[in-house]
Amino acid sequence: VGDSKSFDREVESVCPFCGVGCQLSFKIKDEKIAWVDGVEGPANENRLCVKGRFGFDYIHHPHRLTKPLIRREDAPAKGLNVDPANLMTHFREASWDEALDAAAKGLKGRGTEIAGFGSAKCSNEEAYLFQKLIRQGFGHNNVDHCTRLCHASSVAALLENVGSGAVTATFNEIENADVAIVIGANPTENHPVAATYFKQFAKRGGKLIIMDPRGTGMKRHASHMLQFRPGTDVAMLNAIMNVIVEEKLYDEQYIAAFTENWAAMKDHLADFTPEKMEPLCGVKADVLRDVARTFAGARAAMIFWGMGVSQHIHGTDNSRCLISLALMTGQVGRPGAGLHPLRGQNNVQGASDAGLIPMFLPDYQSVEDDGVRSAFTEVWGSGDFSNKRGLTVVEIMDAIHADQIKGMYILGENPAMSDPDAEHARDALAKLDCLVVQDIFLTETANFADVVLPSSAWPEKTGTVTNTNRQVQMGRPAVPPPGDAKEDWWITTELAKRLGLNWSYTHPKQVFAEMALNMPSMNNITWERLEKTAVTYPSLTPDDPGQPIVFSDGFPRPDGRARFTPASVIAPAEVPDQEYPMILTTGRQLEHWHTGSMTRRASVLDWAEPEANASLHPQTLRKLGVRPGDMIALETRRGRIEIMARADRAVATDMVFLPFAYVEAAANILTNPKLDPYGKIPEFKFSACRVSALSSD
Ligand code: SF4
């Protein structure tokens, strides 16, 4: 670290962590990232959080993969047993040709026996190529990525009811709002730079309504804090909408002009009075009434939500309620108004837009539509592929156990840590007869691989990404990849050639140009434009910087109308009982990113938050006879972990909060794989568990 003159060069790019998509400048000294500063990006205006500023030395970590690896014939049985120190007991180094040939040999010609997980950490072009490889190379749609573990239910509800899976307004629009709801999200930890805009909004008098079973950092800035019982979102939101209907606070003109199914919605809500819902959701009836009046009385209001909403078996219903609340009050399509699911990974919006999902081709065009498929096969110069929706993340693991899937290509995903019921997922990975993993570290998933392909970290590659705001931004390489590691687009292209596909890309800009042919969202957006500036899609002309607010004059649905879809109360899949009396919920921490493969190798972040921990209310700890720092055992019907207890008054007395970044106490050994029927997202936010003290001797 030194003053700016002591750096060799500076490269402007985008942060690789969360969906806020902060623009930054890498300062390079001796081919290492020595420092990072925020720059004037549309989402961050120079700001960065601790991950964006200090979380980069993982790319120089000695664990980086620098050579392709092939599993040795005399390797021990597959398991979570590869230590970087004994890597060569399990694998041997190989040339790129040998490794790619081995990968292709294991996968080629096996049709529906193969599935692929791509990554929301890669560029739009890499996501596009990955889904194309599975569809063109194997003839089906068994391709998915971590959206299935994060906002798939929100996207399902948005597509169903407003006709588009992306946000209707950027989060920065909060500066034009006077009321905002933040529900099931913890932006101070998970979208920290977005949180700064939310706090400024509250500081200048905006009414910030926080709804969360866990008291979050935003609580201090809130006009209303609704700490509702976990899993009762629908009851609480229906009660708020019931008040809006009963007191005729809805926007009749907007409803008549822009929506359908209002009569059914009104009828449905009649039974959800605040008095009836109070015992269920734990929020006082008068508070529900006050929130309803505050939101409905707003000049302009926004709704933000996170995975506390989406990661339930009723995640789609939760999002349907939020959409209905915005529609009945006319809070869409105006400055300061809108629906905004805060997207998690840096490029989960872009990867989903690029078709890295089993039911849609790029731009959410259905695989079941013959015309859509033929538009793609025409561009791809190949024959048709299946018109059936493919399997999703958790379904693919089940299909391995059922002997239907026998080989996988996994790029940058870590299901051995990120899938619910992780032991079930690990057993599935061990069962595969060909697993090709492409990553920057030997992740827990790569422990099970037959072929490991070393790839580039984000600051080593060229490509575009799309943030939670629909802003498409250019990522530029700051340093070269280590050793023989390569950019992901190159690796996927070389594998495709060996699978017999006619690919000849030599630069990601060729991929971008091909994507744009069948993606109306990319109209007027070119690689050359993105090299100069970020563009928010949709962009209406070649000079339009893009539209921060959409749906001002109707929705991309039949007759231009959004839809009210009523939602009923459904209990969580696993309700606490005598055997498992507590509620387990999981999430992220400020310092650590997802399964920890990057941030636990970033020295400052690992220093700040080095150990696995579970948060419980101090009263709960006292009842258990446990002090903060003591070890406890957590058990669910799926498994048991031992972990250090942390006292946290923000957690309700019947709850445990567990971050999922720590392999030594992996949260997902415990979580419930039951799925939301629409989004196919597992219920990470609610499992029945029991807690016990571990004796210190
Ligand atoms: Fe990176 Fe998100 Fe932090 Fe911005 S808020 S610096 S995108 S982790």
From TrEMBL:
It is an enzyme of class 1 (oxidoreductase). Its EC number is 1.17.1.9. Residues 8-63 form the 4Fe-4S Mo/W bis-MGD-type domain. Keywords: 4Fe-4S, Iron, Iron-sulfur, Metal-binding, Oxidoreductase, Repeat. GO terms for molecular function: formate dehydrogenase (NAD+) activity. The keyword Lipoprotein does not apply. In the C-terminal section; belongs to the prokaryotic molybdopterin-containing oxidoreductase family. This is Formate dehydrogenase subunit alpha. It comes from Sedimentitalea xiamensis. The lineage of its organism: Bacteria, Pseudomonadati, Pseudomonadota, Alphaproteobacteria, Rhodobacterales. The gene is fdhF. The chain holds residues 220 to 916 of 922 of the full protein.
